Here is the input.
Amino acid sequence: AKSEGKRQYRFFSPEMNGRARARLMLESNVRKAVSEKELRLYYQPQIYLDSGRLRGFEALMRWQQPQAGLIQPSLFIPILEETGLIHAIGPWLHESAAHQFRQWRSQHHETFVMSLNVSALQFGSAKLIDELQRVLELTGIDEPWLEIEVTESALIDNVEFAQQQLQQLRDLGVRIAIDDFGTGYSSLAYLRELPIDTVKIDRSFTASMFESNKDAVIVQTIVELGRRLQMEVVAEGVETEAQLQWLRELGCDIAQGYWFSRPQPPEEFPFPYGPFRLP
Ligand code: C2E
Ligand code: CA
Ligand code: CA
Ligand code: CA
Here is the structure.
């Protein structure tokens, strides 16, 4: 009957059905993406706010899907993680970034940093250290050029493990950044106990610091914290000149965001890169 049809419609809406199907297709396609090398790295610059010079790049994964086009990481990284494929792409990802660094470094007069995102799952893997050591040896560049970005939650899960893991990475010359700072568990104690070089202010604070006085205070406080604890502070998601100006006035060290550049494929960057003229 009609009413039954209607009820069914509610439980198995075409939209939901479509979504479930899309998800399934996505999953089998993600496997194909990995085997057929459809993943690639885009790069986004980070700029020193005192000089406008290049501080480094963050590598951000993209999926160049033959039919659908460019797919953002929020759609496929969860699937890479659930299927364990994230471990399979580590070597490829680290090598690509290292290769890119070496190429750019030969064209750039000053050293800079290459930042790689490491998820909680990747951070928890015993293979991470060996893998990064391999890449450092492969590159053979004797500068502290490699940085990993880890979220607070990845560290807080097991502080003792995190401490050992981070110390080993530090010993290799890898720099440590806390990603999305202020959005996680935010126990400040770990800033004292863990070897951290860089704090990245989450984009949500930068985005609303002019609308929300609380967010403005949070940004200001993180900048101050970084200064006192001698950690570099990077503001993420800087899109406007006003944001840039205010962050400079606060004494924030580094900024990253669309105002400078969106994440782009490596061939889009002219090298040497920068310096930027700052407002
Ligand atoms: P994230 O590490 O917090 O990366 C910053 C995100 O903010 C990126 O999104 C970047 O494109 C975006 N963004 C940068 N500047 C601006 C801005 O001015 N305005 C706005 N609205 N957005 C900006 P993306 O590339 O979509 O990456 C999303 C997340 O996916 C990343 O967040 C990171 O957690 C994860 N991810 C990306 N690549 C990798 C990877 O290679 N490995 C792992 N484990 N995670 C990755
Ligand atoms: Ca990041
Ligand atoms: Ca972030
Ligand atoms: Ca984020």
